[in-house]
Write a structure and sequence with these properties.
52% helix; elongated
């Protein structure tokens, strides 16, 4: 993001650091809205990173 702001948008460092993430996304032409994770995404995360169970002290 910093490279895009400083090199792509040619912002001064002070101007870059004053921007909010939403403002920077808008300047870069990215949509500020993201769709929330659905059930399929949650299931994929749960399969990739299952809860630890067993005799381990967590």
């Amino acid at each position: 993001m910093m490279r895009a702001g400083l090199l792509g948008l040619r912002l001064l460092p002070a101007d870059f650091w004053r921007l909010t993430p939403a403002e920077l996304r808008l300047m870069l032409g990215q949509s500020a809205a993201q769709t929330p994770m659905g059930r399929a995404g949650l299931d994929a995360l749960m399969n990739a990173y299952p809860d630890q169970t067993g005799d381990d002290d967590e």
